Amino acid sequence: MPADSAPAATTAQGTPPPQGFGRGFVLDTWYFAALAREVAPGSMKRHELLGEPVLIGRTKAGRLFAMRDICPHRAAPLSAGRIVDKGDGAETVECPYHGWRFRTDGVCAAIPSLVDDQAFEAERIRVRSYPVAESQGMVFVFLRSDPRSDAEPDHPPPTFPGVVGGGAKLVEAMDFDSHIDHAVVGLMDPAHGPYVHQQWWWRSEHSMHEKAKRFEPRELGFAMVRHAPSSNSRAYKILGGAPATEITFRLPGYRWEHIQVGERQVLALTCLTPVTETKTRITQIFWSDHWVFGLARPFLRMGVVAFLKQDGGMVNLQNEGLRYDPALIWIDDADTQAKWYQQLKREWTKSRAEGRGFVNPVKPATLRWKS
Length: 371
Fold this sequence. Notes:
The chain is built from 5 helices and 18 strands.
């Protein structure tokens, strides 16, 4: 799909107006929820996405489904129940409280307490269902702006280059006490590394030097076009050869670094999933067919965990200032990516409200900073 286009909205009803930085969410789009291997046949698990309880499950036959994790009878979590087949050939979710059963599309299939001569149409009761998709070993849930709509998503979940070497080689997740906006701009900030991530194998304040990187628009986002990694980023050296990397961001919250070393590839994908207005889950996933992931995985895991903890600690420190709702200063060029993100978010919301295609506001540019 061209970088400056996306499918036009099928429904504009219920689309909220654009909100300020640190408020509101990008809606009518796909959010990462789980790894597919975490959703076993016959299992259900409660998730919280954008402040809503969402049950993600898989029938014993292998069909993936998602619904609001609240029974409409007495509000018990449906995820605490079980998936049953009462012999009619349809697997249903059974509430643990009174045994009400719901099809995977959310329609009530049975209310056990009813007697034969009580004419109550159970199928009139519905639990909100969510479009859910499995792609490249990941589970994505589509969050609509209008929760009453049952229209199918007008675009598929994102796909990423470099999903090679079988299953994910390394997965780490951490919850940040932050709105997704702050998490996104912190993730793409090129200038904090020498101060927040000071490791002998990465870089330090004393190794800072000027950098110039080319950026281009991409589908629902932008990319730092493929280039040789900076000389003060020592971690790349373990890959050997002459690595070339491209770093891409895409709405609503995906950032990935695709590294090529000859015929070998490494993909480092970061998925940002808003749990609530003040909590964001950061999931870091690595795929690779490079031999180094077989030998150095424990050390790579230590590095990923260290990075996440350092970023999480800085988020907590930043929250001390954000409590006072200060005006934030955005400078060129180091903060241009953060400004692009805000423009992308506004344009997405506006295009949905107006029922038209998305027009990428990002233009090709070369950005310069020191890090």
